[in-house]
Protein: FAD dependent oxidoreductase domain-containing protein
Amino acid sequence: MRVAVVGAGVIGLATADALLRRGAEVVCLEADEPMAARSAGSSRIFRLAHADPALVAYASRARELWSVWSQRHGSPLVGTEGAVLTGPVAPAWALAMAGFEHSFLEETGSLDLPARSVPGPALVDPAGGVIDVPATAAFLRTAVGPALRRAHVYRLTVGEQTARLSSSEGELEVDRVVVAAGRGTWQLAAHAGVYVPTALAHHVRFTFRLRDPSARPPCWMDRTEFWQPGFTTYQQCSGPGEWSVGASLPPEDQAWERGRAAVTARSRDLVRRYVREALPDVEDEVLAELYCDFPPGLGDGIHHATAGTATFVWGDNLFKHAPAIGDALAAATLAGGVPDIPAA
Structure:
């Protein structure tokens, strides 16, 4: 079967790899550099912990496949730091993890977080860890190999038996197409009569230096708002002696209409003040900034739709699930079925 995958972020590359391993004739089309948009950066957080038990189970499946990827790559792609969730949502998330290893703590003092006093409760997810993004990108680019091609797809025509793609490199007819093109997904989905949300917001993650370069704190999702009402964060090691902080700001502070520069400046000011006042183990000089746009309001849900010979996938926080999503999309594409992905 001839299959085109549009988009070479982590989901597109994972899908192309899974299709190739199943014997499909695959082309993966990317307008820019692979993993240069929403999949860019040095690190991501892997976690089993989710509010939805179905996503916990799906993350467990993804963790198994991350191990397979690591074996194929020859070195671990996910670290062993663990992950911690603090805040009032921790009890509900702990219930969602029933049947999976975790611990629930009323106090946070034993967790080696780089912060001053953080109120409990806390959920500890020992399966969590830091995903090595550059190593993952190198592994997937090698796995997909010559099937990866540079082309901007600007039109998709879905027929009863085939799909036709119009691109900067010409016309291409295939039996099936999978579109995992980030912010470009909605335009191609519209050609097939599929609605994909078009709203976007700005987000910036900042990297700082740990005062102890040998420290390796757990990945941390903080929902306590202990520093300032409405201010929540995710944090993780992003390299030796480096600590990255991403803040979830009020919607009006991340709105697309504010512009990238204004949101970046506002985020930088808040996050630096937070680091100075709340993270004594972290220096406040910004070493690096990672910008991305994202579809607001989607949370951890994985969204997909199929119209004829085309399947579309979109969402937020998908990186951790990438091996499982790619495997499910490949299996469904070749079988003509519905991807085995939890309903969003």
Q: What stands out?
A: Helices lie at 10-21, 53-73, 90-96, 133-144, 185-191, 251-254, 260-278, 322-335. The longest helix spans residues 53-73. The chain has a mean pLDDT of 96. The chain has eight helices and 19 strands.
